[in-house]
Design a protein that fits this description.
- The structure is a single chain.
- It contains 17 helices and 13 strands.
- The strands form two sheets. An eleven-stranded mixed sheet has the order 1-3-2-6-8-7-12-13-11-9-10, with helices on both faces. It has a two-stranded antiparallel sheet with strand order 4-5.
- Strand 2, helix 4 and strand 3 form a beta-alpha-beta unit.
- Helix 12 crosses helix 14, helix 12 packs across helix 15 and helix 15 crosses helix 16.
- This is Amidase domain-containing protein.
- Keywords: Membrane, Transmembrane, Transmembrane helix.
- InterPro entries: Amidase_dom, AS_sf.
C-alpha cells in the first residue's frame, strides 16, 4: 500500500518543459554489448531481436545488469537480493536458442526480471517482505506467477526492495523503507520513491533490470510507477495469481508488471495472467484473459474512438495537466466526456470501510500464509509483532514501530463489522465508479498521477499508468487510465497510443550520486 495515494504536484508553469538528460557519470558502466548493441532502455522486443542477430546473449545481458546493480544499488536501494543462479539460467536460455534457433520462444525467454520481495520463489532467494522476521523462511513452492515466468523461460534476476510488509506495518514508515533493504531512493530526485513496490520501479527506471513485478493492494503499483517515470499495470483482481504472495487482502491484492514501456508491460502481463489452481479468484477472472494475449492490443491508433471520462475533482489543482490531457487525447482521436462527478467520492476516499476490512483480512490472510510455510521463524501475526518488539533497540530493524500490525492483531475475524464494511464498499463501487462508467458509456476514466488508486482498489478494477512528464523540480508524474473489470485490452490500447504519441520518458540523470 502507499501512504499518500492522493496528492498534487506543485505546477507553477506549463509542464513538460523540463526533461532531464542522462548524466554520463563515472558511476555508470558502458551500456553497449561487444557488438555495439545498446542495452540501456532496450525493450523486450529489442532484446529478442538482438538475441536472434547474435548481437547479445542472455549471459551478457545478465552480466550488464549485475554490474549495474553493483554500481547503483548501494545508493538507490532498489534491489534486495541477486539470484546466485541468474547466470546459469542465462546460459540455459542461450543454449536453448542455439539448439532451436527458430524457436518458438516466448517474448520473455532469456529476459531478466526482478520480483518484489513478497513474491515467493522456491530457490536460493529469500522471500521476506523486507522483514528480518521472515529471513530464512522456506516457502512450499514458487508463487503462481513465478511458475508462469519460469515456464516462459524468463530469468529470475533477484528480489526488489519494497516498503516493509507492503507498507502495512507502521503508518509513519517512509515509502521505500524496509529493515532488510534500507531506504530506497527516487532516482530522479533522490527523495521519496513512493508506493510499496518502490524497488521494482527504481530498478526498472535505472536499467538495473529489463522488467519487474510489483503487487498492489491500494496504490502500490500505480504510485511508484507514477513517481519513477515507468509504466505500471494494476490488473483486475484475480487476473494474475496471488498464490505464494505475502498477503494483505485477498479481496484487493493483485500482481502486475512495472516496466519502462507499455509493450514490455503487455508482454509480462500476457505471461503471468490466467488460471491457477492455488488461487480461487483466478477461476472467475480467467474469463477476462483474451485469446492471443495482450500484445495484440499494442495499437498506435488505440485512442481513436475511445470514450474517456474526466472527473474534474482530480484535476482541481492541476489546470496545466488538464489542458495538456485534453489536447493530446483529442489529437489522437479520443472522445472526451468532461465534467463528470462521482457522487460518493468523498466517502470512498476517506477509506473508513476499506481500513476496517483490510485490518481484519490482513490478520487472517497473513496467518494462513505463515502457517503454510515449510519452515519459518514466525507462524502468526502475533509472532511477527513479538519479533519486532524484541528487536526494537537494534538500529534500523524496528525504527518506525508497528501500529498497523497492532491494530490488525486486535481484530476478531469475520463478523458484523467486516460484513458491513464489505457491503458498503460494494455499494460505493456500484453506485460510484461502475455507474459513472456505464451511464456515460466510457471505455476508461483518465486521472492525473495515481490519485484514482483507492477507487480502483476497493472494486478490484484495473488501471494502467504511463509517464506523462516532469515538473519544474524534475520529478516525474504519470497519467492513469482506469476501467471496469477485465478491461485490460482497452486500457493497453489507450495507454500504448498515448505513450507512442508522446514518448516522454527519459532515464534519470542520477545527479545526486
Amino acid at each position: 500500500m502507499d501512504s499518500t495515494s492522493v496528492y498534487a504536484f506543485p505546477f507553477s508553469q506549463f509542464i513538460f518543459l523540463i526533461l532531464l538528460v542522462t548524466l554520463q557519470s563515472s558511476v555508470l558502466l558502458p551500456a553497449t554489448s561487444d557488438t555495439g548493441f545498446s542495452i540501456e532502455e532496450a525493450t523486450v522486443h529489442d532484446l529478442q531481436l538482438a538475441f536472434q542477430r547474435n548481437q547479445l546473449s542472455s549471459r551478457k545481458l545478465v552480466e550488464f545488469y549485475l554490474k549495474r546493480i553493483e554500481s547503483l544499488n548501494p545508493v538507490l536501494r532498489g534491489v534486495l537480493e541477486v539470484n546466485p543462479d541468474a547466470l546459469s539460467q542465462a546460459d540455459k536460455a542461450d543454449q536453448e536458442r542455439k539448439t532451436k534457433p527458430r524457436g518458438p520462444f516466448s517474448a520473455l525467454h532469456g529476459i531478466p526480471i526482478l520480483l518484489k520481495d513478497n513474491i515467493a520463489t522456491k530457490d536460493k532467494l529469500n522471500t521476506t517482505a523486507g522483514s528480518y522476521a521472515l529471513l530464512g523462511s522456506v516457502v512450499p513452492r514458487d508463487a503462481g506467477v513465478v511458475t508462469r515466468l519460469r515456464k516462459a523461460g524468463a530469468i529470475i534476476l533477484g528480489k526488489a526492495t519494497l516498503s516493509e510488509w507492503s507498507h502495512y506495518r507502521a503508518k509513519n514508515a517512509p515509502n521505500g523503507w524496509s529493515a532488510r533493504g534500507g531506504q530506497g531512493k527516487n532516482p530522479y530526485t533522490g527523495g521519496d520513491p513512493r508506493g510499496s513496490s518502490s524497488g521494482s520501479a527504481i530498478s526498472v527506471a535505472t536499467n538495473m533490470v529489463t522488467v519487474s513485478l510489483g503487487t498492489e493492494t491500494d496504490g502500490s503499483i500505480l504510485c511508484p510507477s507514477d513517481s519513477n517515470s515507468v509504466v505500471g499495470i494494476k490488473p483486475t483482481v484475480g487476473l494474475t495469481s496471488r498464490a505464494g504472495v505475502v498477503p494483505i487482502s485477498p479481496r484487493q491484492d493483485t500482481v502486475g508488471p512495472i516496466c519502462r514501456t507499455v509493450s514490455d508491460a503487455a508482454h509480462v502481463l500476457e505471461t503471468i495472467a490466467g488460471f491457477d489452481i492455488n488461487d480461487e479468484a483466478t477461476f472467475e477472472a480467467s474469463k477476462y484473459v483474451p485469446k492471443g494475449g495482450y500484445a495484440q492490443f499494442l495499437r498506435k491508433d488505440g485512442l481513436r474512438g475511445k470514450r474517456l471520462g474526466l472527473v474534474r475533482a482530480f484535476f482541481a489543482r492541476n489546470e496545466a495537466f488538464l489542458q495538456y490531457t485534453f489536447r493530446n487525447l483529442r489529437n489522437r482521436g479520443a472522445i472526451l466526456v468532461d465534467n463528470l462527478e462521482i457522487d460518493n467520492i468523498n466517502e470512498i476516499c476517506n477509506g473508513l470501510s476499506r481500513d476496517i476490512a483490510l485490518k481484519i483480512e490482513f490478520k487472517q490472510a497473513l496467518n494462513a500464509y505463515l502457517q503454510d510455510l515449510v519452515d519459518s521463524p514466525v507462524r502468526s501475526l502475533a509472532d511477527v509483532i513479538a519479533f519486532n518488539k524484541k528487536h526494537l533497540k537494534l538500529e534500523k530493524i524496528d525504527e518506525y514501530g508497528q501500529d498497523i500490525m497492532l491494530e490488525a492483531q486486535k481484530t476478531s475475524g469475520i463478523g458484523k463489522q467486516l460484513n458491513e464494511a464489505l457491503l458498503n464498499m460494494t455499494r460505493l463501487s456500484k453506485n460510484g465508479f461502475e455507474k459513472l462508467m456505464r451511464s456515460n458509456k466510457l471505455d476508461a476514466v483518465v486521472t492525473p498521477f495515481s490519485s484514482f488508486s483507492s477507487i480502483l482498489a476497493i472494486g478490484g478494477y484495473p488501471g494502467v499508468i504511463v509517464p506523462a512528464g516532469y515538473d519544474e523540480e524534475g520529478e516525474p508524474f504519470g497519467i492513469c487510465f482506469g476501467g471496469l473489470k477485465g478491461s485490460e485490452p482497452k486500457l493497453i490500447e489507450i495507454a500504448y497510443s498515448f505513450e507512442q504519441a508522446n514518448k516522454i520518458r527519459k532515464p534519470p540523470s542520477l545527479f545526486f550520486l
